[in-house]
Task: structure prediction
Amino acid sequence: MNIALLSRQPDLYANKRLVQVAHEKGYKLTIIDPLSCTLLLQSEKIAITHPDIKFSEFDFVLPRFGPIWQRQGNAVLKVLEELGIVSLNSSDSIALARDKLLCFKLFQRNNIPFPKSACVESILQIELILKNEFIFPVLLKQNNSSQGRGVVIFHDIDQLLQRASELFVRNEAFMIQEFIPDAKGIDYRLFVLNGKVIASMQRTAVPGDFRSNIHLGGDAKTYEPNSLEQRLAVEAVYTLGLDVAGVDIIYGQGGPMVLEVNACPGFEALERVSGVNLAENMLNYLISRK
Result:
């Protein structure tokens, strides 16, 4: 089996684990930087080239590029799909999962609870939304945020408008989201693969922070999700058409809600606290789809 792994960061834990498990199983796995690929228009079709790689030799592809590289990464993935290469998460599902506005519209349509959120396109729109729909503090989330970075809490409108203006100038998309104080810096990461929750953990933010991300110093421990949490996670992933995803769930006054769906989830802490071999599970499922 010949597997391509699309990522700009070969040294990430998840990538190393996937390489390790693939080697143990006798698979050939090649990490490819999507920015090193060239996309060409040929006879009204997009073709892909690379100085060292023949893409037609691959059987499978694992997309592991971050949100900041979404445009090029997804373009490369789409061409590989058109070559008949089987992907763990399709290009369309990844694009959907990273479009915050469409995500929340679909969640609303499918009765999946989530924090009140709004995507904005102008300073005037922010002022109107904050006046009519939100109370401070609120969160500003950049669309290309990951591992908690790009998520900032604001306690007054002046600071928020200043930050929003900077992002508008740089043409960077973002959303405004209600802050859930009842969560108390705790959320739950559920790892969904093929319609099932196969691993989970509780994450707790460091004192003074609301973000529970492990990369920001948050603490992780074992956690057994209840049936409602599992159902929410599976429904959110199914709604977005994903094969694999990390789903973050928090609790507000009304109960559990989906905070985030990560289409290319890291899993270093999750493998450690859960004892589940997530790299092997991912590869086994991917190979089974041929």
